[in-house]
Design a protein that fits this description.
With about 425 residues, the chain is of the alpha+beta class. The chain contains 13 helices and 20 strands.
Length: about 425
Amino acid sequence: MSQSFSPAPQLDGDALIADVLIVGGGMVGLTAGVALASAGFSVIALDRAPLDAQLDAAFDGRVSAIAAGSRRALEGIGLWNHVLAQGHVAEPIRDIRVSDGDSLAFVHYDSRALNDKKARSASAPPSEPEPFGHIVENRTIRAALAARAKELPNLTLLAPAELAGVVNEPSHALASLRDGRRIRAALVVAAEGKESALRAARGIAVTRWSYPQTAIVCTIAHERPHGGIAHERFLPVGPFAILPMTDDHDGRHRSSLVWTEKTALVPAYLALNKADFDAEVVRRVGDFLGRVESIGPRWSYPLSLLHAERYTDERLVLIGDAAHAIHPIAGQGLNLGLRDVAALAETLVDAKRLGLDIGFGEVLAGYERWRRFDNVLLAGITDGLNRLFSTSFTPLVLARRLGFRAVNRAGPLKTLFMRHAMGLVGELPRLSRGEPL
């Protein structure tokens, strides 16, 4: 693809000049920086946390489910090969098993069945099936982003650096940093998370509430292999997920637990000694993986829902948790942010090819129209599922278990749900379809 965009960020007097300033250098923000820089834009990304701290194992203990559509997007911007370069760190999700507590009601999604059906419809022999996605540790994604960023001369990462304020001029936005540096850019991207200062400074209202739930996250080692199966169990207090991870360097089989619990009880669980904590884990996991024990630290994350009333303002666009945050019940939070990135990159690339100002309101309105439906839909689905499965009201319990059995037997509906889990439903950006920008 021929590029006629700006090279590396330039210096004009005391101000750095770039096409795009990204505030927030986390997984979504820096992915946006990589995507835009890969497309030829000059980009400056800044984050308050030093890069070394973000790469430390203690910084973020979570894993992420990278759906198939998100993986295609990461491949398209040269990032996925850096994930794989970290070692055997991306575990394919071959099956998803969703169950309702200790009942016999469940839904089993098999990626092989979906790919075999596609192969038969194309009159071609079944190939190696594409998994629903991959489970990757967040610190691995951060390390891959840092490595890819170093390859792009037109991407500058400032970390630590903190934004002091932004003022808009007729042709650009002028940002001031706490250390006195200034940055001039045609567009500012807010990617600083749920407590976005840029969003608040522009007076963009949000719909938000906190769930009376907190996620406990830890890694377990287990005797038997997991077989690439992701388990989601709906318990009365909230979902309990067992996510397949790669074996560690000692050959131990591993999975990540995302244990949703009543917020008031979480401090007591976190304070348990290892033997007592492991006993609580075994009570919930069961014995299908053989002997189970927790390994490494424990983390906790309060759960909430947030949605901004709009995603854009003058020379400003919101992505990721700055625009929307959802319950982790389906593991789709990061995937929504990555679809934001793919849609924004395509919107800006197309605008630049037409000679349009990438900070122009109508350009950014196109991005917002594109992403709003997907984000609102997933927020509603995850919130509804959490409420539905967190009740012990007998008629609802019976109805949802009948629903499980119906979905498990309904081929077309089940196929739709499987493709949705892969991030392959709806108006997909080119990157998510595996196409170049």
